[in-house]
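Honest question from a wet-lab person: if I give you the sequences of every part of a complex, can you actually get the arrangement of the whole thing, not just the pieces? Trying it with mine:
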Amino acid sequence: MSLTSPNRGWALEKIEYDSGQLEGIHADLGTLGDAGGNAQIVLRNIDGGLEGRGQSITLVQSESGTLANRMNPTIATLGRIADVVRAYGEAVAVHAKAANDLIDDIEAAHTANQAAIADLDTAESSQRQCTPDDDASTRATAEQDVTDAESSLAATRSALEDLWERWEAAYALWDDAYGAAVAGLVRSDGTTLSDATLSAIDALANADTPAEVTEIWDGLTDPQRDALRRTYPEFIGNLEGVPYLDRMLANKAAYDKIVEAGPYGEPLDTQFATLGLELTDFDGQLLMFNPFEQPQATAAVMYGVSISDENGDPIDPMEGITNVNILVGGMFSSLEDLEAWGESARNLNRYADDYGTDAGVRSATIAWYGYDSPNLLTEHTMGSATEGAATLSATLRGLDNEVSSSVTTSVIGHSYGSTTAFLAVGGSSDNLGVDNLIAVGSAGVPDGYHQSWTGDDAMDYSGTRIYASRAPGDLVARYGEHSSFGHGTNPEELPGAISFESDGGTVPKLDGGTENGLGTPGHASHDGGNTIWGWWEQDNGYLARDSESFRNIANIVANGEPL
Amino acid sequence: MKKRWQTIAATAVLALALTGCANEGDGMATPTGDELVAQAEQHYLDYRGVTNDIQALIFDGPWPVEVGSFGMQPSGAGCPDGSYKFDLARSTQVDPAQHAALSESVREHLIEEGYDVEGQDLGSGEAKSTDVIVRKQGDFSLLMVTFIANGSVSVTATTKCWPGDRIELSDLMFGGATLSEGYLPREESPSDPLFFGVTPGEPAFGPTPKPTATP
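Yes, you can. This is the full assembly:
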């Protein structure tokens, strides 16, 4: 059941938390801090008490003392993070639990209230059917039924309002605690900033929407914005509502800082190196960067935008952009595939611009790696899609806030990426501003089983045009759909969905006559990329630039229809 | 008999798998350092010679350049580990009335150069497009010229994969420089002299200090 609170407009949703895990993290941080303290004692003993003479002994003593002192800020930071985790753990145990405990009661009260409304409607209808010819007893009974129904409705309404009020109060306290925790983590390194800047961090961390973030950001002074970008690039870079230029600069700074502090072992080092080449060699701009997200690093890279003009002066990257496309990969996709997806993003920009020359189309495309993509075992379920949809919808809300409504937004999902994309758009309680939702090689999109299992409303794609294609030989996509628990809907069968071809079709021969064109042979997204079957279906993936499917996508993006 | 059948099947699968993974340089030492750069430069000059000839047939003036598709950056997309390729794209506008003749002249040129050429027509009206395509021949994995009825013409080329570490090669060619900061031209004519690599800290195509503030 999808309900929205009457006063604050918050979606009635369970707050996910794990008190035991938070307590464990707090304890582990305490242990780390203690171990650091013990190490300091040992180092100071060496500094002050190591016996012997000679240059080496003196050097060891001196280095030990220096190292012990250098550990102070780290140990202090660990202590501050532990305090934040503990405070949030305590708050969440109280307020989130209180809010969650009310959800069943609210849903029951909502159902009772709906029944009371229906009863009153029935009673009023019966009363209206009374005629002057009816006897007094009949008319009195009808009037009494209305009175009783009104009384019942007043009672159920009051009970529901009371429950909503209590839930909103508990939810608000949890929301405040969450904001305080985010702000606390941002400030945990003990960097000295002005009170006004610290206050800005609190405000940004507590903002509930990208629009609120933008308003707060716009209200900051240039030095404050500089200070935040310089000191907390990882916070600014991922905060939806901060202008894209500032986010891209902040994320590049965060990337440089992270790489400098490496190496981290595989697969992170290769992923970071690949990402670095996309930024330096291929003009990608880093829109989102969570390098240590578990179980895999997440990021989003935008192609087709510039952050500086010919003189090197900063410019709004979205200036002149008419279309923004988001590519969402499926099973096994990770940052290691970024080269192939980046190439597809650049190709999509080019072909969309070429097909849309008359309309003045200028495209930008985001290669989005914002979730833990599933493997062969987990792709049957909605777990990865649910997590990914939450992140993707946040990205789309931020994009909707960043660009004007005249910009056409298209989300293109391949395989399980379409499952995630359709859940993000169709399952969102608000309008994410997506114009085109395109599925290729779909592993199925959310179905009735998902709806009945979660209790959520049916998917609502209002205002979004749906396009889909599956190659005839794409057995993997069909297997994904039919073996799933929750994504068993073929997007081509959704009401109003437009199917487009990916089989190559019949094409004219250069020397006359016709021949069969090259279609997408299997499930792959690219040439040689993201295929579980390997070599035999390497070419003509759905997003390869010579594939019929890709060219259809380019024209949908540019002109709103397949070729 | 059953065992023999299984052996043959297993051998066949292995042979197919090995065929699928084959790329130039298998069995040869992977080049590094100066040798890697020298080989890459020769590959680059060779394939750019072909694409420049095609571009010249279509339009011999300046074509706009997008940094990410310039074509000089080594990429591992679609290549086996330890190998790299180049990927180029250019677009321009040409009077649609000339497309048929230009398409034919590109096709004839490619055939004269020894390529087998395919074609592909897609769409209709202003979005109708005609492709002249070379797949998996010579230095190319895919070479494609696309004529769209609205006047757009694009030349795109993806080379085959050559042995060599793309990250090492990029570092040797560019030294970590951000290429969008003035290291590549913003437009290029087919007759412009080709160059390979850049000098970090000395962008050859205009001043581009890094942006630092919200505009």
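Two things worth pointing out. Residues 33-58 of chain B form the longest helix (26 residues). DSSP finds four helices and nine strands in chain B.
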